[in-house]
Amino acid sequence: MDTETMQGKSRVCVVGGGIAGASLVKSLQYAADVVLIDSKEYIEIPWAQLRSMVEPSFAERSIIQHTDYLKNGKLIVSSAVNVTATGVLTADGSCVPYDYLVVATGHTDSVPLSRSLRIQQFKADNEKIQSSDSILIVGGGPTGVELAGEIAVDFPEKKVTLVHSGSRLMEFIGPKASAKTLDWLVSKKVEVILNQKVDLHSITEGEKKAYNLSGGETIAADCHFLCVAKPCGSSWLKDSVLKDSLDVQGRLKVDENLRVIGQKNIFAIGDITNVPEMKQGYLAERHAEVAAKNIKHLIRVGKEEKLAMYKPGSAMAIVSLGRKEGVAQFPFVTLIGWLPGRIKSKDLFVGKTRKHLGLSPH
Ligand SMILES: Cc1cc2nc3c(=O)[nH]c(=O)nc-3n(C[C@H](O)[C@H](O)[C@H](O)COP(=O)(O)OP(=O)(O)OC[C@H]3O[C@@H](n4cnc5c(N)ncnc54)[C@H](O)[C@@H]3O)c2cc1C
């Protein structure tokens, strides 16, 4: 592996332009020759998506072109399809050589390639909400719950039904937070049905659509939104040099320096890692900090000693419930209402995230 040499800077290839990959290239761009490979032209702040569905102009700030913060690096808009010990292969036929590789492909999502098309998509979702009297939300994870909250607060006259296959909402946080969230949704007249699956292959068209549930019940609604978990972004690694580094869930096994186990020059950060903690964006940002520090250290010093270590984060999360309220799980307390709402729900950390990427918060 090369230290910074007479021939030029070390080559760092980062795959995945979510919050983890974007944070990393932002801090490494002047220290190395950086290439960012992402399947789309922009980074989207995921926790602002649901607000953008009820207020499409919100997406103008939460969808950011990679070129807005990547000022000294190369962007390749294509999907990575394989990786060797020396380079990353992309769907458009490029092979990007690297001295250091960072895998940050958290989850895959079938979203448009361009920012303008993505904003159009939010406008279309908004029209769908506006023109429906009754809306079915499929999935009671954070996405389904936040969407139900946004619609219930902005469009209280609409009938919202949320169907979840699990026995409680948002299993990624504790039962107390799930129970408080259920009470809040019910207080906003959202009908919540647990332990049921919606059969999306047998929707009957009519004045209203009829959706069959696994328990035999039928729900009538004008439209539905699918809010189920997105697949882990590691399918492109299954036949690669990293295939043996994937755990059973498809996550990359990393050491305390965030290097893929057994690899000297390959790091993984964000949701794709098997770090034993909640998968959260603010933790992905911390991963990026540690990996950037370590890559800079390896480039400058060339020695393994004194690499920064990552300590898993505690089980903390805030889920917004409309514009003013939220539910928060902190290490010793679970809160619902205006306090977590003040922390997250007004701006959904968009200004903060933009600042983190070196951009104006507005
Ligand atoms: C509704 C909701 C609310 C949330 N709220 C919060 C919150 O308030 N605070 C918080 O900290 N976290 C929150 N999270 C969690 C947070 O969104 C994730 O932890 C974070 O986005 C993970 O970032 P990432 O960069 O690791 O992965 P991702 O955001 O999944 O980004 C992965 C990137 O890799 C790209 N990619 C994937 N495969 C390939 C490939 N083969 N080639 C090229 N590119 C590829 C994708 O296009 C994407 O750009 C929330 C999540 C949800 C769903």
TrEMBL record:
The answer on whether this UniProt entry bears the keyword Transport reads no
Cross-referenced Gene3D superfamilies, in alphabetical order? 3.50.50.100
Q: Where is the FAD/NAD(P)-binding domain?
A: 11-277
Pfam families, per this entry?
Pyr_redox_2 (PF07992)
Per the record, its GO cellular-component terms are:
cytoplasm
Taxonomy, superkingdom: Eukaryota
Offer an example of a GO molecular function term for this protein.
electron-transferring-flavoprotein dehydrogenase activity
Keywords (A to Z) from UniProt: FAD, Flavoprotein, Oxidoreductase
* Family to which the UniProt record says this protein belongs: Belongs to the FAD-dependent oxidoreductase family.
What role is this protein assigned? Putative FAD-dependent oxidoreductase.
Name of the protein this chain belongs to = Apoptosis-inducing factor 2 isoform X1
Species for this entry:
Cinnamomum micranthum f. kanehirae
Q: What's the source species' lineage?
A: Eukaryota, Viridiplantae, Streptophyta, Embryophyta, Tracheophyta
